[in-house]
């Protein structure tokens, strides 16, 4: 009974901040084990339904985000209930354009996104339909907007579409060697080939000298070569703070 109520609450929200998941776990389990252990117990129950709570981090704020993922089916199949087949095709095209953007920028302007409507290849899917679909993708948090007004892939998409994205974009998308999440804003070391989220790097490198050195091999990271994604902010935040 208790686990059914918990399942209902997970299904109702589908994604949770670190604080929200902590609260939810404490509500359903005894207080004496920590919430990470409680999530593990919960995930064992969810597995029966083909579901798992999976954690990712927001690439800008560094905050944890827990997403209820369907591990039996391709997550894009789940979109079929909320979107038309044309909208799903268009979302795939927009995601593809973001991931394959020049210079690994991982972003797309609104006008470029609208222009991609023609790739859907159906006469009835015009600019107006593309514009409405983009609003829905943003409202449902599949796409995020950067400070410069460009579309980015949201943290929710990076977690929930992880299987789809890693299968199709093995060469374009790197995983963070610190947290294993997919990277659209981060650093690449051309010496050891390891990549990290900018936020993971900056959280850890507070103790290192104020020079951007690879946390894995100590090699100097030189901009712009080491940058993955487009930076609205100073890439090496601690460096700026220390000097
Ligand atoms: Zn990371
Ligand atoms: Zn390195």
Automatic annotation (TrEMBL):
Reactions the enzyme catalyzes: S-ubiquitinyl-[E2 ubiquitin-conjugating enzyme]-L-cysteine + [acceptor protein]-L-lysine = [E2 ubiquitin-conjugating enzyme]-L-cysteine + N(6)-ubiquitinyl-[acceptor protein]-L-lysine
EC numbers, comma separated: 2.3.2.27
Name of one Pfam family that matches: SMC_Nse1
Keyword vocabulary terms for this entry: DNA damage, DNA recombination, DNA repair, Metal-binding, Nucleus, Transferase, Ubl conjugation pathway, Zinc, Zinc-finger
GO annotation, cellular component aspect: nucleus; Smc5-Smc6 complex
Subcellular localization: Nucleus
Keyword DNA damage: yes
UniProt keyword Metal-binding present: yes
Gene Ontology process terms (BP): double-strand break repair via homologous recombination
Gene3D superfamilies noted in UniProt: 3.90.1150.220, Winged helix-like DNA-binding domain superfamily/Winged helix DNA-binding domain (1.10.10.10)
GO MF entries: ubiquitin protein ligase activity; zinc ion binding
Biological role: Acts in a DNA repair pathway for removal of UV-induced DNA damage that is distinct from classical nucleotide excision repair and in repair of ionizing radiation damage. Functions in homologous recombination repair of DNA double strand breaks and in recovery of stalled replication forks.
Assembly information from the UniProt record: Component of the Smc5-Smc6 complex.
Family: Belongs to the NSE1 family.
Protein name: Non-structural maintenance of chromosomes element 1 homolog
